[in-house]
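FORM 12-B: Structure-to-Sequence Request
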């Protein structure tokens, strides 16, 4: 009798573990896996032409961003430990976490973000969050003063 109830409890906890793992994978959806950084630049819609900066140095383009179950593995600003994922539908004025300001529509259009684009919000263990926006077959993300464009290796 005890072994049957112990087995039932074990099955219950295994089912919960499976749901937790699959739920996390579902939260990442089509964003999951490795992406290649194909472009890095300071966006022109920053409003101040003097603020436009060159790419943040060699090695960024061609680098990778890998969305794993509980972290984003990348060099520099796009890395994230203890990641929590959330897929959102956001309005144009909310892209790039509102940092595009009055240039939001221009920023969305120039980045290839449509009204139907999904956004993956990644909140890191340190409380910072980054939004990855679908732009056709690529992703765009604003981190610091730089706009990154990411693509899958097989789509380059």
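FORM 12-B RESPONSE
SEQUENCE OUT:
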């Amino acid at each position: 009798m005890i072994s049957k109830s112990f087995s039932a409890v074990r099955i219950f906890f295994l089912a919960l573990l499976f749901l937790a793992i699959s739920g996390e994978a579902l939260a990442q959806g089509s964003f999951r896996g490795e992406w290649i950084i194909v472009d890095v630049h300071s966006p022109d819609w920053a409003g101040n032409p003097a603020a436009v900066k060159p790419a943040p140095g060699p090695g960024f383009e061609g680098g990778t961003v890998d969305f794993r179950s509980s972290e984003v593995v990348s060099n520099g600003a796009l890395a994230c430990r203890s990641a929590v994922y959330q897929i959102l539908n956001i309005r144009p004025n909310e892209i790039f976490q509102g940092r595009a300001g009055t240039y939001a529509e221009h920023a969305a259009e120039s980045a290839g973000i449509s009204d139907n684009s999904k956004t993956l919000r990644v909140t890191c263990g340190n409380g910072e969050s980054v939004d990855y926006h679908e732009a056709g077959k690529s992703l765009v993300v604003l981190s610091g003063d730089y706009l990154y464009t990411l693509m899958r290796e097989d789509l380059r």
